[in-house]
Amino acid sequence: MAKYVYFFEAGKAEGSSSMRALLGGKGCDLAEMTNLGIPVPPGFTITTEACVEYFRRDKRHPDGLWEEVLTHLKRLESTLERSLGDAERPLLVSVRSGARVSMPGMMDTVLNLGLTDETVLGLARRTKNDRFAWDCYRRFITMFGDVVLGLERAAFEGLLDEAKARANAKSDAEVPGHALRDLVDRYKALVQEKTGRVFPQDPLEQLRLAIDAVFNSWNNPRAATYRRIHGIPHEWGTAVTVMAMVFGNLGDASGTGVAFTRDPGTGERRFFGEFLVNAQGEDVVAGTRTPEPITALRQRAPSVYDDLVAIKDRLEHHYRDMQDIEFTVQEGTLFLLQTRSGKRTARAAVRIAVEMVREGLIDRETALLRVEPHRLQELLHWIFDPTDKARAAGKGHLLAKGLPAGPGAAVGRVVFEADRAVEWGKEGQKVILVRPETSPEDVAGMWAAEGVLTARGGLTSHAAVVARGMGKCCIVGAGEVFVDEERRAFQAGRILIREGDVIALDGHTGEIFSDTITRVPPPISEELRVLLKWADETRTLGVRANADTPQDARKARENGAEGIGLVRTEHMFFQADRIPIVREMIMATDTLARRKAAERLLPFQREDFIGIFRAMDGFPVTVRLLDPPLHEFLPHYTDLLEEHTRLDALGINPERMKELEEIMAKVRALQEFNPMLGHRGCRLGITFPEIYEMQVRAIMEAACAVSREGIRVEPEIMIPLTGTLGEMKLTHEMTRTVADAVLAETNMSVKYLIGTMIEVPRAALVADQIAQDAEFFSFGTNDLTQMTFGYSRDDVAKFLPFYLERGILPADPFSVLDLEGVGELVKIGIERGRKTRPDLKVGICGEHGGEPGSVEFCHRVRMTYVSCSPFMIPIARLAGAQARIKAERQREVTNA
Amino acid sequence: MAKYVYFFEAGKAEGSSSMRALLGGKGCDLAEMTNLGIPVPPGFTITTEACVEYFRRDKRHPDGLWEEVLTHLKRLESTLERSLGDAERPLLVSVRSGARVSMPGMMDTVLNLGLTDETVLGLARRTKNDRFAWDCYRRFITMFGDVVLGLERAAFEGLLDEAKARANAKSDAEVPGHALRDLVDRYKALVQEKTGRVFPQDPLEQLRLAIDAVFNSWNNPRAATYRRIHGIPHEWGTAVTVMAMVFGNLGDASGTGVAFTRDPGTGERRFFGEFLVNAQGEDVVAGTRTPEPITALRQRAPSVYDDLVAIKDRLEHHYRDMQDIEFTVQEGTLFLLQTRSGKRTARAAVRIAVEMVREGLIDRETALLRVEPHRLQELLHWIFDPTDKARAAGKGHLLAKGLPAGPGAAVGRVVFEADRAVEWGKEGQKVILVRPETSPEDVAGMWAAEGVLTARGGLTSHAAVVARGMGKCCIVGAGEVFVDEERRAFQAGRILIREGDVIALDGHTGEIFSDTITRVPPPISEELRVLLKWADETRTLGVRANADTPQDARKARENGAEGIGLVRTEHMFFQADRIPIVREMIMATDTLARRKAAERLLPFQREDFIGIFRAMDGFPVTVRLLDPPLHEFLPHYTDLLEEHTRLDALGINPERMKELEEIMAKVRALQEFNPMLGHRGCRLGITFPEIYEMQVRAIMEAACAVSREGIRVEPEIMIPLTGTLGEMKLTHEMTRTVADAVLAETNMSVKYLIGTMIEVPRAALVADQIAQDAEFFSFGTNDLTQMTFGYSRDDVAKFLPFYLERGILPADPFSVLDLEGVGELVKIGIERGRKTRPDLKVGICGEHGGEPGSVEFCHRVRMTYVSCSPFMIPIARLAGAQARIKAERQREVTNA
After folding, report:
1. B805 in contact with A at a CB cutoff of 8 Å?
2. Are strands B620-624 and B714-719 parallel, antiparallel or unpaired?
């Protein structure tokens, strides 16, 4: 028969910190502290296995569990020379939950268990404190009623408020003992009324019910949701710790507190915490009294303070991590009630990790694992000054809340059109672009703006994706914001914001303010630089950036990119001096005219590439040939129709009317039912070869030009949307022909590669064929996710939020790579590709390249590099290092 | 060293019919006939290996080839006691191509080789026929000039026409000998002028050049295209046969002919062929003289005829297949020049196969393999009477040509609106629905029409797919047809067809006529019924139909379906009495209103299912819950806008304006960028559960109702577009709950299954998970192809035709299942699904279910059944039988 209960008392525990899975975090750390000789009230822990078995048996105890509990209870009673239910020397215990990983506040706890109408009198006698005893009893009934009997806490609180009113007491503490005694009677009557039974007077019944209630709290909806969000398996179960009560509310020589071994906000190495005299733990949480700083304890009780400092040093040294501890002082005696690894800000996490290495507490690998990569984002973007933001909120300037789609803090004047954003931007004004939603036409405006706000769209909408790529502050899906483009204004609640008004966007929280707020730069610390250096020395996975301009490329290098994994050439097409030529190219009715327009674009493209190549001296640059469908470069049909209707009504400007009609006809001809699955990518390059030929020529002429300047350039020409060997063969051949022609003309020798995006499911399935002609693969996991799921990124908001809420999907697959489906295709693609070409260079350039879990996957499937937005580079560097450490540890475990 | 040359003469050949790969079809059949003692002019065949080696060596002969040719030439000369180039006894030979499989007319042949200025005189002397000799020479120069020297045939023909004019001759035969002699001089001068060299006078040089030219003809563009279309490997190469000439043009006791051992049109067992007195083979082909029927030979030369009949019987018996033979009679002596399996109509193929089994010539398996399944289509749809169609074409009634999208022959009055098609149809009129393109709104009109014509769209457009499913005659993508909906007319060339005019559509050819044409029913023969019975006894793969109505279901059973693999419930939504309720359901702003509308639809749906279940008594019926996005059920936005604008201008009917505005708002809200990847399928069923709940209830209530009538019903409820286990779990649970509730209410016990479409790539990849909750899979290969390729079926016409033309894709993947990509996913899906649930029922219900190659694949990957349009059922039955036979033969080969 399994052992279900582990005892701990006076320096000796059956458990230890290695038994976290069995005893839960709380149980094993109490055992560990006991073994270390740290004062902990004695008690015992019921294992998670007992909980799992309890649920397996449909909420019946496993055989022998209750007997084991009784045995250990006896042992506890004999240690303390008190007994549960003993009228003279009553034992009181707490019953606490504790899962394998901390789930703060998600499960239930019962304090002061063992109080009955009889024992409450014994407690009063022994403590010589009548009021204390009745206060304990009424707290117990409340907690037991709530947790075990399922009664509404509010009902008890209502009765307490009445008692306070009757006693004319301002706080709970002012309610006199007799009133509390009276209150207990009312509480018991309430229990009887609601449950039809008297409040249990048998402490063993109390104990059994409380243990079951804590087991059951593992499956309460709040805990289940928390587990789903944090990826904690539902099968783990919780442990239950039963321990002797100690009281911080026995007078001024008593008290309770929480503390951190270092500053959890900054990471500074100083003892940090709070302390409340004459109080129980829940009073600290309730916040009705203001606690004193921990240092105050030094004055109040110097020896207790010294003990506490010695203990916290010992714990930090023992666990080799910053600890969050709870303690109680009962009439001058110190007890530790909990220790656990402390939550901290990203800034603190970095500082603590680096300093602990310097202190010799941990090694570099451990330090690298101590910082969650995605939290670095907090350190990389501008933020609002918290005080000034509180001021703005306090004054009612919080307009609405949307989805935080791009981090940062932006302040600027509202504009409703991309063109105006560009115009005002040129005049040196800071603007916020506000749109119902964005389209590729808005990209220039988004660039020019400080921040972007859209009323519609989800975290993967056009606005969100483009803004994140730009590292731009962005809020999307602000449902309370109604944009009236015609009036150049938006309504949020009862407030109307007009063009030119100043607003502020908090891209970290999604909050929108109708006032300016002071911004502060992100505190990039020396410690972060050190940590990232260690990460670079550790990781084997390359980190590149997605960058479309020389500015992007420079930013990427500053952030540590080792090349560019994706230059999207179409973004260059949208610039004001180019779009007319692009449109001319599209409107061309024959090859010759199309070729002529393409030739006029060539110098622009070449200059772009020259700038990027210069910025990336010594590193490879992957340039993707034109990808989107052509209609994205033409005006919206409704806009054209509107202008046409207007001119028609006025009977003016027949030339423009004719021109409009031509464009409208073209837009109609290019219209597609599903543009995502339409005439784009290499399908375009194959049917209109003039465009790709021009782009290849521009890339290679640029490469030759910078090479002549002495810059080391490694162009990698990438074909988008390849799905068949036929496409790859044809585009490879075309690219090779043009590229070699340029080299021959310029008499230069520049090494270049020709490769392809893998973003169509079929490409992954026939990767062995495609690798015959592709020298590298780059997984375009945005499109691959769209096609593998059959989700249009632009339409997914209609059901994805519902799917996430209902747990049909664990995460948005456009943010977190879907390892089971899309990841499976990626694995198949890499395996088959390398079967044909063992040295195939493989990268990823979707949104996922900067998502830590996805980066770990990329390392595991032996990708050469990940490529992500310049602003995500530090995250990818750290995630890459962690991926390697984890994989090696995994390998060691497997080999051992 | 390889043996490159195989000799045949006088009853003894080195080759045989087992050496088809090495000697080509012609070479091996000549050897086989020689061995059978059938009179064949002697000669030798150069192997395909020599050809392959020739190309491998960059068009140089392999070592020893020419020496081998000379050795065998000597042997031929000594047999015939004539020599190449001998002035007195000149040997003339033909040099013929012959690949492993017949590629009629694709490669080249040279006749009369060996003629020179000297030997032509010897030939004249020996045959005592001056004119004959010069005619042979001028034919030789023409052919050699064309095939070997690459000169234009037209130049020679021009000179011939001049000679005819000079001689005042009406036909070639009337040109006298001296004029032909003169013509030869002009021909030689032409060769010298064009090539700069004299016409080769060395017969060995002629032979060598001719052999090389035949080798080279393997790679001429026409042959390469033919191979690509027919899937013949480019690596095979051609054999070359050099054989002694025999002459059918030596006078009235000579002649030449082609014949079939049975009637290739009907399959009737009668000797069938044509014969031309005093002619060479090319005269038969040229068609300048009208040949006599083969029976005429009986009068002209009874013993020759008897010999020929004996030989044809022998050949058919030997090859156990209908033969297509070529023969020449030279001065009363019969020679066979070729025998091969004869091409035949589908009707003949079926009859010959069945009769040969009855005659004991072949077994049933062989008979089943003798008929190409897709050709059965010719036997299953109405056709135009060929004579009457020729009349119409002759009178200039052929308007235009489009893509033949749905087989059959349709005649009716033109309408341009679906509603009008329904209206006129109800009045008993036969109508043809003509649209620029169709949408789901047109489905009712398509049903009501005899045929459908669209100006736009490809073979996989909405019109094409729906029409094929209905077995409806349909022509799409008729580029010359300009539909003017406003004027209710269409223009084709200079002809304007107005509403109400009669047109005729030939769905087999894509031809559109401006006149009525007599139709004839398809001759469904007793033989076809027998063959299909054998097919049913042979195949293990089930065959079901896609059918949405009781009529469809009945048609499916008539055609031999063993169940329904796909009932598309949305088609029922479009009927006139339902669409208003459907729209009400969609317009509902809350769950209650939506539920109410759904409840009103319930009786309709239940009646539909009752009808289908009754028709399918004893067979399973798979019903797919609602799949398309909701906006498909609402009117087009532009139509609404138009009505709104009109009413607004007139200032009337404000209630209707308000209603229109509401619908317009809804349409806007439902608008999607990529509806294919949007809010549809189970995504809809999960977010609006009322719809699926109603449908499940309707299915189960119908099942209970018919079950009570004694009908055996096996409903299989199918969830569309599942991509994740979460979706499957939720929809399974919902379905189970509603279905069991219905059974409980009705107190019935009906076995039903819950399964899913596999049409999203991810579903195939995580099929092991999905099979936890799915009791069957049905591969929706239409959508699976769309998502695996990233091709929108509705937009693919922009590049797919180009891709097919350029050979980037071997076939339209929406017609022929892409085995490498989509097929790979299907395989993965079945393997993984059966890992979880070994007895998983697996079917296919895409367009591919009736495509023979795809059916073979489905058998190979161990699907349970295929499901296709009711009209394709016979094809699938035969294809299923062939698949099993082929797979078993393959297994025998592998095991041997």
Report:
1. no
2. parallel
